[in-house]
Amino acid sequence: MECSPLSFDKWVITFWALANCKNGISSYELARAIGVCQKTAWFLLHRTRHIMATQDFDAKLDGVTEADEHYHGGLEANKHESRKNKAGRGGVGKVIVVGVMKRGGEVRVKIVPDTSKATIHEFIKDNVQEGSEIYTDEHASYRGLEEKYIHDSVNHSAHEYVRNQFVHCNGMENFWSLMARIFSGTYISCDAPHLHRYLAEQVMRFDFRKSTDADRFEYVVSRVANQRLTFKALLAENKVGV
């Protein structure tokens, strides 16, 4: 908020709205609510997401965990002909996001360049304590996790989603479902260079899902110090990506 020409009440409303609106809030809606132009509201929201993203993980996840991957991007059938990807189907041309969550607890996600075994294993190694239980689907990249983890998987291609009421990755898939809802409703035009901040917004709300609105608001406000994001830096992302 350093050198901001906006009054403090506009910042506070933005913090509260983004922390507590389950499906997010669009820059147009916020602009109408606080009496600023859409570009100013867009900048305010991204600065708030930046605060949500700059969190430090003190320890790796342990206990029972779930891992899964997600492909972010619209359906090819819904795109203009000039923007359709001619190279293939499925995840081709989409942004890959991998995630892991402690069952009943917090979730961590990361945008990755591919779903290779090396990439997936590195992400899990960085976020999950060795020896923990980890459940996935049967994607080939998860093979070998049993060397350092108690690993089991479900076969989605055989319509298996839960085994023995315990082996599943439904918690992680629930997070993807909630995330997809905000992109099909509120954030229908999310540029890939800014996706990591929208993910941070959803992760923060998900991690505090059992908290009150006041707790979520207090958490966001507590992270304001030394977390400035300039408009120039924000626009530069559109050119170089993330």
Overview of the structural elements:
The protein has 242 residues and is of the alpha/beta class. It has 2 domains: 8-54 and 191-240, no CATH class; 64-178, Nucleotidyltransferase, domain 5 (2-Layer Sandwich), CATH 3.30.420. The protein contains 8 helices and 5 strands; from the N terminus they run αααβββαββαααα. It has helices at residues 8-20, 27-34, 38-53, 117-127, 170-184, 195-207, 213-222, 231-240, and strands spanning 64-72, 95-102, 107-112, 133-137, 150-154. It has a 5-stranded mixed β-sheet, sandwiched between helices. Helix 3 crosses helix 6. The two termini are 24 Å apart. The model has no long low-confidence stretch (mean pLDDT 87).
Structural descriptors:
2 domains, alpha/beta, five-stranded mixed β-sheet, Nucleotidyltransferase, domain 5, elongated, 242 residues, 8 helices
